[in-house]
């Protein structure tokens, strides 16, 4: 990457990026960072020695040099040690892997609802994992069966899962086969138990509101009155 591209990526000034990129050793960065005398000058050898020994805590190093006569702040010490920490922690060579939640969302959401960055991340993920690409294909096929109410295609889909699906999908298919007729009807007919579930949820909400406040007669009136 160019100096300008690195600066944009890390939100750093081009001069800062150029100084780090062209430095051949850490000492060169430290000498250029301090171009004039400061309260820290006489204590730099001690800081270098302790940092190289493994003590990288700026607060602790500040307390140590304070006992030697340092009268500055710990912020000055932190700024002075920052190039050393940057050298010990080089930038990652590649982008961070997506989390499980992110990958699950990319696989299960409708493709039209993914942003451009999410589609790019999904394509890169599927390219690295052929098994995950197969899972994504099977999940997409099952979503089409649900949306388009093609319950008659469920048997062929389950056979495909048995052939090339992973363990989680095969376990899901095992559960479907336990009540296959009901599942097929649910994926074919336009009827739904949604209204019934809605009434059950409303009654439970009323029961929680009335708990400890009145007897069953008042609860019954509230339930019937709102039907």
Give structural notes.
The protein is mainly α and 227 residues long. The protein folds into four domains: 1-25, no CATH class; 34-88; 102-186, no CATH class; 194-225, no CATH class. The chain has 14 helices and no strands. The chain has helices spanning 3-10, 14-22, 26-33, 44-52, 58-67, 74-88, 100-108, 116-128, 130-148, 154-164, 167-177, 180-186, 194-210, 216-225. It is elongated and about 85 Å long. The N and C termini lie far apart (67 Å).
Q: How many structural units, i.e. domains?
A: 4
The major pleated sheet works out as: none
The SSE string, one letter per element, is HHHHHHHHHHHHHH
How far is the first residue's CA from the last residue's CA? 67 Å
Task: Please give the count of helices.
Answer: 14
Share of residues in helices: 55-70%
Radius of gyration: 32 Å
Mean of residue pLDDT? 84
How does the overall form come out from the CA principal axes? elongated
| Structural class by SSE content | mainly alpha
Fraction in beta strands: under 5%
Total beta-strand segments: 0
Q: Which residues sit in consecutive blocks of at least 5 with pLDDT less than 50?
A: none
């Amino acid at each position: 990457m160019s100096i300008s591209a690195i600066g944009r990526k890390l939100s750093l000034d081009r001069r800062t990026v150029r100084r780090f990129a062209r430095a051949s050793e850490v000492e060169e960065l430290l000498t250029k960072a301090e171009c004039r005398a400061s309260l820290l000058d006489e204590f730099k050898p001690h800081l270098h020695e302790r940092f190289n020994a493994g003590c990288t805590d700026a607060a602790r190093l500040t307390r140590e040099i304070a006992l030697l006569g340092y009268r500055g702040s710990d912020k000055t010490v932190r700024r002075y040690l920052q190039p050393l920490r940057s050298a010990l922690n080089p930038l990652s060579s590649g982008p961070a892997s997506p989390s499980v939640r992110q990958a699950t969302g990319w696989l299960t959401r409708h493709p039209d609802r993914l942003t451009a960055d999410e589609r790019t991340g999904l394509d890169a993920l599927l390219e690295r994992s052929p098994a995950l690409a197969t899972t994504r294909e099977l999940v997409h096929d099952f979503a089409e069966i649900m949306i388009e109410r093609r319950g008659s295609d469920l048997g062929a889909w389950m056979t495909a899962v048995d052939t090339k699906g992973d363990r989680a999908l095969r376990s899901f298919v095992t559960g479907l086969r336990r009540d296959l007729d009901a599942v097929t009807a649910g994926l074919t007919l336009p009827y739904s138990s949604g209204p019934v579930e809605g009434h059950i949820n409303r009654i439970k909400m009323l029961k929680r509101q009335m708990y400890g406040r009145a007897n069953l007669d008042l609860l019954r009136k509230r339930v019937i009155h709102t039907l």
